[in-house]
Amino acid sequence: MINKRLEKLRQIMTKYNFDAIIIPSTDPHQSEYVAKHWKVREYFSGFTGSAGVLVVMKDETALWTDSRYFLQFEDECKDYDVNLHKQSIPHAPEHVQWLCDTLAENAVIGLDFLQFSKAQMDYIKEVSASKNIQLKNTPNLVNEIWADRPALPAFPVDIHPLEYSGETTASKIKKVQNKISTAKADYYLFSSLDEIAWLFNIRSKDVDFTPLVTAYALVGLENTVLFCDSNRFSATAIETFSKLNIEIIDYELAIAELQKLDIDKKIITDISSLNYAVYNAVQSKFLFQNSIAKELKSIKNETEISGAKNCMLKDGVALTKFFIWLENELPTREISEYEIGKKLESFRKQQDLYVGESFAAIVGYKGNGAIIHYTASEERAALVKNENILLVDSGAQYKDGTTDITRTVWLGGTPTAELKTAYTSVLKGYIALEQLQFPKGTVGMQIDAFARFHLWQHGLNYPHGTGHGIGSFGMVHESPQGFTTNPATSSGRTSHLPNQLTTIEPGCYKKGVYGIRIENIVLSIAKQETEFGNFLGFTPITLCAIDRQLIDKSLLTDSEIAWFNSYHKMVYDKLSPMLNSDEKKWLQRMCEEL
Amino acid sequence: MINKRLEKLRQIMTKYNFDAIIIPSTDPHQSEYVAKHWKVREYFSGFTGSAGVLVVMKDETALWTDSRYFLQFEDECKDYDVNLHKQSIPHAPEHVQWLCDTLAENAVIGLDFLQFSKAQMDYIKEVSASKNIQLKNTPNLVNEIWADRPALPAFPVDIHPLEYSGETTASKIKKVQNKISTAKADYYLFSSLDEIAWLFNIRSKDVDFTPLVTAYALVGLENTVLFCDSNRFSATAIETFSKLNIEIIDYELAIAELQKLDIDKKIITDISSLNYAVYNAVQSKFLFQNSIAKELKSIKNETEISGAKNCMLKDGVALTKFFIWLENELPTREISEYEIGKKLESFRKQQDLYVGESFAAIVGYKGNGAIIHYTASEERAALVKNENILLVDSGAQYKDGTTDITRTVWLGGTPTAELKTAYTSVLKGYIALEQLQFPKGTVGMQIDAFARFHLWQHGLNYPHGTGHGIGSFGMVHESPQGFTTNPATSSGRTSHLPNQLTTIEPGCYKKGVYGIRIENIVLSIAKQETEFGNFLGFTPITLCAIDRQLIDKSLLTDSEIAWFNSYHKMVYDKLSPMLNSDEKKWLQRMCEEL
């Protein structure tokens, strides 16, 4: 089936004289997860991973993805004529240089300009220039083949109420307008869906795992336009927006409307999210800046922080019940990873304000835990027994917040000393970064290694960043702050600020043998002010016992043991009032002093 | 006098219709220290600091420098009509935006293109474009005013023998030629003086503190041209070079000769060191790459490492004798910081193969130690008494290596607990970074904070990078590796590699009260290879006791105490054979177990 689609695509390439087509995994808003309408890469390759770029040439079809997805690719694409190219850095545009090296001078590449940001197109142009390779827009190419392509999402849009958002749309728009004034500009154009959801306090279910609304937004000094189909809004919502001088114009009309803006107007926008089709259409002058919404959104207000803490209670209760279920059930039968994931979801569903999972849960038994973005399908899930190691990374969307937590548990048998050293080093790394005090202005890349150095000392490491920002009933991976080894990413270069929510999640993975990861969400807080500056730190808000069976206590310092005991006292104190007496007893045992 | 020079400069600006002149502190090779001929900024401002840019406009003269030099500026420029603009980041081109904001549309800026790199000019062009500001070359402007301008250096050039360099010029040039072949280019153009000194194994004394030779070099696949006055070389040297197909052509002819290269030739060069006058003159196509010489040079060969270790013995002996002298002399009289610096130099002068200081020694008593690039002139040096704290940062050029070391000593009285906490935290930071094991590929910015986090914990910090590469009878600050908080610098982005020499020098500075810094040179070494990668670390090669009077032992862990004792055992074992019995006794006391 995939091969037939590729055959049709090649016929069309011949018809239009394209030597190659680049099909990325994103939508016109550079979203991480996309609506079905935009799953073009999946349609032509069969590959469902969240990151990957397909390149179709006359005699080869090639897919670039990173190490998290190699196994999944092999599984999903084995029957198709698609070759895997292994990316050394996730999301790096390594296919561009390869493609330009492969193509002849004056070749023509087809791309849907909607799916490429201005910054990405600048890079492709730069690389392709020396061979005079032409880049042509392919806006309707896919529709000629994909007859039953799903329509754009049209779900009703919900207003995210003040009791969860903590700040009115009017107040947020005022901040954007101040920014426009300061920059002596006329408009601010937003195209990132989570920025728009935050700015207008709107939510829907256009995108898997993330409560976003497909839209663009143009904020002016007096009036604002939200490009989104008006029939998705209630009459009340439209009236409320109207009072705020917010007009709703159909999504499909966005480019045509933006084209009408005067040539002498100045529009602030973010070069990394604005797509090239919009950029190309607009006559006005763009001022490229890092999005003001990104930083404002990353600093949570009191309501959002209190919502997040409330979600941790709910998640903590669900996880406690889940681990009790697992402990009781495993001696009686083998359970598939898939079923375990579903069971965990069922405990979260019982919680107040639950909306859905915040990403596809990762339940990885033994060696499967070493596949970093592993998702067990019902068919190929491994059977979990009453022994060895299990990694569970999961999260939820609640109306008052978003969660993400990883625990790794030992299910029975005798662990090796090597495994205990790795697990204990991961734990020590988590504690070191969470306990670090650092000056304001410190960026993620400067302190990421505090979660690694205990592993390094034993010749161990992990091939991913140490943590990411997280939204408030928003994206589970939220820019800009985080911890990473990569200076090219925003989380490497961005200062941590008080009242941000960020994950800390060191790990250790041995191929075919084990995967270990311990992940909490932490809140950034001001800790000390001296003549040397303002110093910040973190405080954990995730509430869930950390398995102690794999800890080699001889490797822990007194202060690490004190941290462990104090964290577990907090977990027990906060969760126990919501548990029945059997559950309380179980949690008490999990939270005993080490 | 300075004011008169500025007046003359303004007359000439009027004559040529310049609205502003930018005068940087560098030479045509982007050197850190420059020959007298290039001290143009000093000539027109009176400011002698090694970093700073002068901007002369019709009605204002402004100098940009960073916090290391504020005090020195006030002292040196108080009588002149020069306004200080405080740079927030050292070397950042903050004056460019300011100047372009200040000037009117279509204004004209004069610059000597020789003193600006291609990369710097690109930046100035970008900022000045929106106001259509013109940039005009001012090659001979200074000569019209500076009648007695010193000539370009013409000292004899020494061949740096194989017993110190460890690699022949032929072998080094072969590596460059391989790089040219791989890149399908025709030439490699070098304009950085320390790269040329390394490549041709040549040394002279053109530049203060650094044994460099003023030259350009063009390496081709068959032939090489060294642009340097041939009368600076011995007949033997010229003949030896000739056998290697190296032709020597006068320095002043470089641009004219490079202009003759065919337009279809490709020249590899480094955008950050090539000056704009050369770039502008050459017709051929440039391929901008990070200099191959930088990385090759940073990895020391066995001879260079053994030379460096030998220098540490000599420096260690000189410093031991110096500190004994200081301890004996201080009870008898007050000694000026200036005299202390000279005395230290005198002990180094007694050492084999000594050439000179590698930078102006920093001898900072009490609050003077908090001025990071403090150099006490004979006139304004403070008098050091038998009490309180003294910081001594110094280094030497020996024919077999370059040194750089800082020690901070307590001279008498009772230190405060605050001071002991700061000193002990600096020491702990030094130990943490020196003892760190980290994977290959780790860059300076990822691990710099290991030297800071003990300070951070007490609300302390220091406003400079943690260390820099160091040359082999070369530059005391040598690119590319190091430790820094700044992602924009090469030392932030460059991986550490085995056999590099780097300083580790955390500090803590309280304005007007104290300056603390502890600095050793460390050698990068391979430590462990596992399935998770290759792991590197450092080993200290500097040999000099670290003062223990300011250590609060209760803050040290057992492993830190073990490090301290083991380091001092090494210092005693290596230095004592070269000391007399009194000196041995003194050192034994300094190296006792803690």
Instruction: Report strand % of chain A.
Output: 15-25%
Largest interface: A-B, 30 and 30 residues
Q: Order the strands across the largest sheet of chain A as they lie in space.
A: 4-3-2-1-5-6
CA-based gyration radius of chain A: 25 Å
CATH class designation of the largest domain in chain A? Alpha Beta
Helical stretch count of chain A?
20
CATH topology of the largest domain in chain A: Creatine Amidinohydrolase
Q: Helical content of chain A, roughly?
A: 25-40%
Chain oligomer state: homodimer
Coarse structural class of chain A: alpha+beta
Relevant CATH superfamily of the largest domain in chain A: Creatinase/methionine aminopeptidase superfamily
Low-pLDDT ranges of chain A = none
Organism (chains A, B): Aequorivita sublithincola (strain DSM 14238 / LMG 21431 / ACAM 643 / 9-3)
Domain Creatinase N-terminal (chains A, B): 5-144
Domain Peptidase M24 C-terminal (chains A, B): 534-594
Keywords (chains A, B): Aminopeptidase, Hydrolase, Metal-binding, Protease
